[in-house]
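Please produce the structure of this protein holding heme C.
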Amino acid sequence: MRSSRMVGVCIALPGILVAALTFAWIARAQQSSSRQDAVAMFARIATVLQSPRCLNCHTVTDFPRQGDDRHAHIFAISRGPDDRGWPTGRCTSCHGEANNDVTGIPGRPDWHLAPLSMGWEGLSQPQLCRRLLDPGANGHRTPQQIAEHIAGDRQFVAWAWSPGRNPAGLERSVPPIPHDAFARLVEQWVAAGAPCPH
Ligand code: HEC
Ligand code: HEC
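Below is the modeled complex.
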């Protein structure tokens, strides 16, 4: 009786062990593949962050940029001490509260540059990701607050998808992913732990 139970245990044990190991292996594989999925999400997010409509304000220079070729802003405009230009060339002396399709000057209330710490030009994707998530650089935002800003900021983020016409009368191009799809993508990436590529 006793020895037959032992035999039973001896037969069952390797089976249980194999099953447990298999489950652990699958769980791990799933975890690492969902991390890879989330890292791949960031690669798509970066295509928007690095599109000219965002980068022209998120510069690492002393001045804003213009156009899809991101040339330096005409009239030698510079950021000044408060990202709103010098007294001789305040952003709002030309930029109104809405796009002006006659002059080709884009507009939103209190038009101004993103602070230097939020500059994204010339960064690799890992650097961009870390800069975006760094509370010391991003205005003390949590990843969730970044996602909320991207979904809800009507002032500037939304402008990038309705940027109006340039002085030549041509519609400015928009970022490569529609705004709502982009906002959902950022939300999913944050929900997955906001992993950065290496
Ligand atoms: C007209 C200039 C302007 C444009 C265009 C613009 N931004 Fe910004 N952005 C700002 C300013 C100014 C801030 C700082 C706001 C604050 O901290 O209150 C900011 C802050 C942010 C932040 C939060 C801070 C950070 O570093 O994460 C995110 C995210 C952001 N912008 C995303 C975008 C994206 C995405 C686009 C393009 C689709 C874009 N912005 C286009 C001016 C701009
Ligand atoms: C003397 C008028 C004037 C002043 C002052 C001025 N701008 Fe402009 N800005 C323009 C004109 C005109 C355009 C359109 C140029 C174009 O699209 O080719 C423009 C376009 C831009 C764009 C381009 C958007 C894009 O994606 O192509 C940005 C960004 C910008 N200005 C930021 C600023 C900021 C920030 C300030 C203040 C530091 C400022 N401007 C001050 C006249 C001005």
